[in-house]
Design a protein that fits this description.
Chain lengths: 111, 113
Amino acid sequence: RKEVEQDPGPFNVPEGATVAFNCTYSNSASQSFFWYRQDCRKEPKLLMSVYSSGNEDGRFTAQLNRASQYISLLIRDSKLSDSATYLCVVRDGTNAGKSTFGDGTTLTVKP
Amino acid sequence: DAEITQSPRHKITETGRQVTLACHQTWNHNNMFWYRQDLGHGLRLIHYSYGVHDTNKGEVSDGYSVSRSNTEDLPLTLESAASSQTSVYFCASAPGQDYNEQFFGPGTRLTVL
C-alpha cells in the first residue's frame, strides 16, 4: 500500500462545476499536509497548506480528517485555468523535512 | 529575485556514463531535495540535505549520489546511468525544518539510451 493515495482520476468537468479530490495517508505520525498544483511538464507549486480546522482560499477549500487519515480539496466554480494535476503531499513530523507525494489527480475543465 | 535553477534542462546520455545534474538556489535555504517523476506518477525522493556537508538517502537512492559543499548547490550524480533512470528530475529547496513550502526548480528531463 502506498503511503499517500489519491483518487486516480482523470476528472473531466464543465466550467462552473464543483469538484472534490480525496487523499488518504497511512502514516499516523504525519504532521503537515499540503496540496500542490502541477501544470503539464512544469514544476509543482504550492496551492495551499491544509490545517486541522480546515481552510479556504477563494474557490478552494481544504479539509483534514486525522481520525480517518484523509485530506480533501474542493474546487468551486471551476475555471479552464484550473486544469492541472493536483498532488497531495504529506510531511512526517518525526523526520522533519521529508515529504511524501501522492501520484496526483488530473483535472480537465472544459468549456 | 531569489530563485532555484537546474541545468541542463534536457540531457541525453548513454548507458554506463556518469551524469551530473546541477541545482542552484539563491534563497539561502538550508534544506534541499532531489526528486524524480515518472510518467503518471508523483515525485519520489532520491536524496536530501539539511545543510552543508549533510546528505541523506531517500526512498529511491540506489544509483545516485549527492554532495553539499555549500548552501546554494546540491548536484545529483548518476554514477553509471541506466535506462531505468530515464525520468524528469526536480530539485527543491526549503528554509529550515519547520517549513510550509518547498520551492521547485524547473526540472531536468534525462534520457538514458
